[in-house]
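Table 4 source record.
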Amino acid sequence: MGLPRIGMHLSTSGGVWRAAERARELGANTFQIFSASPRMWRASMPEAADCKKLQALRRELDCTPMAIHVSYLVNLCSQSEEVRKKSVAAFRGEVERALALGAEYLVLHPGSWRGLTREEGLRLAAESIAEAVEGLQLRGSGKAKPRLRVLIENTAGAEFSLGGSFEQVAELIGRLKTVLPVGACLDTCHCHVAGYDLVSEAGYEETVGQIAATIGLDTVRVWHVNDAKAARGSKLDRHQHIGEGTIGLEAFGRLLNDPRFAHCAFIAETPVDEPGDDVKNLRALKRLLRTSQNQVTAVNSLA
């Protein structure tokens, strides 16, 4: 088994390839980026030279997988036809940039079905994704691995947000399996505030059982590892530094060392309130990896 993949969401300021350099500086071996501003509908393709430089750096550093997070503006199940069409076009651009950059994963929040029924939202999201990727080559030839896998991320459980339960994530994945390579990205903060128990040992096992019964453990490719500012079941999506929120260090240690998720990348999206917070959170996660004596490394043991 290879090294555990632990990293951060990183800035591409100064060039998209700079994210790989930042990963090296932090000690991360996986990372996530935005391929363009997450607050803009239209974005240009990255320069070919930058794509090649990023891919070369990742190979040199063994920094994989790389995930790209889709713009927050995209709402593929919007009741507004104008917004939905803009979202389809924007999502297609995200896929095209992810392919050009050589990303393994593209993480998507399906959107809000406000004004529709949940069933209509699921149907519209699946149809919109299929429309967006039409004609794009996401699968390798023969038995080759997918060129790009779209990961449906669970949400914090807000009333009209699609993906607030494992069942909704699983249903959307099921509708998309014949259309494109697809999987799941689970966020610890979203799970927690949506009401799933990751904190107690018994609750964690129950939650993993629910994931297995709905999404499937192998379908989960990325965990967003974020502590939570709000209480379990609150539906409030507020990320906190690792070990300083309502989830706590023990739960993250349990997840990081769970052999059932050894195939996953663990990527933090924790706040950067002060310089050095990204290093602090990455180190907090790495300290939780079990040592050869099967002990959880003490949190204060790393200078």
